[in-house]
């Protein structure tokens, strides 16, 4: 079993920055893909971006140029740097991991609130 621990959410004014972290633990992980999703009130959960253990990363169009993904394989940790935050970025952000076996795991979520 894999556990995901998210941190870094909070309240920030528009134009501000936050960095989310997601650390995976529980068993040895060789290859994985970790992703960030977000879910705003009364909306579906959507993919924000993903990054593989090899470093291949992608972000949805609406956050390109503002958000960035990075990883620390030694710590099985992925970071989502969020800059120039907008009120529409307000959501609960969830970390997701898919391992080499195809199993998926979810974190508990962390709230990001951007005030205007």
Please, could you describe this protein's structure?
The chain is an all-beta fold. Strands 2, 4, 5, 6, 9, 10 and 11 form a seven-stranded mixed sheet that branches. Strands 1-3-8-7 form a four-stranded antiparallel sheet, with no helix packed on it. The chain starts with a strand and ends with a strand.
How would you briefly describe this protein structure?
This protein has 116 residues and is mainly beta. It has no helices and 11 strands. Strand 9 and strand 10 (104-106) form a beta hairpin.
Keywords:
four-stranded antiparallel β-sheet; seven-stranded mixed β-sheet; 11 strands; mainly beta; 116 residues; 0% helix; single chain
Q: What profile does the largest beta sheet have?
A: 7 strands, mixed
Portion in beta strands: over 45%
How widely separated are the two ends?
40 Å
The residue ranges in which pLDDT falls below 50 over 5 or more consecutive positions are none
Structural class: mainly beta
Task: Summarize the topology.
Elements: E1 3-7, E2 10-13, E3 18-25, E4 32-39, E5 46-52, E6 57-59, E7 67-72, E8 77-82, E9 91-99, E10 104-106, E11 110-115
Parallel strand pairs: 2-11
Antiparallel strand pairs: 1-3, 3-8, 4-5, 4-9, 5-6, 7-8, 9-10, 9-11
């Amino acid at each position: 079993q894999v556990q995901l621990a998210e941190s870094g959410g909070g309240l920030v004014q528009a134009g501000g920055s936050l960095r989310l972290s997601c650390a995976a633990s529980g068993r040895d992980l060789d290859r994985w893909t970790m992703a960030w999703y977000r879910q705003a009130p009364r909306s579906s959960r959507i993919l924000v971006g993903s990054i593989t253990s090899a470093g291949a990363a992608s972000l949805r169009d609406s956050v390109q140029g503002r958000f960035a993904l990075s990883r620390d394989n030694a710590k099985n940790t992925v970071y989502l740097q969020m800059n120039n935050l907008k009120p529409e970025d307000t959501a609960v952000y969830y970390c997701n991991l898919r391992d080499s076996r195809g199993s998926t795991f979810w974190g508990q979520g962390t709230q990001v609130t951007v005030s205007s």
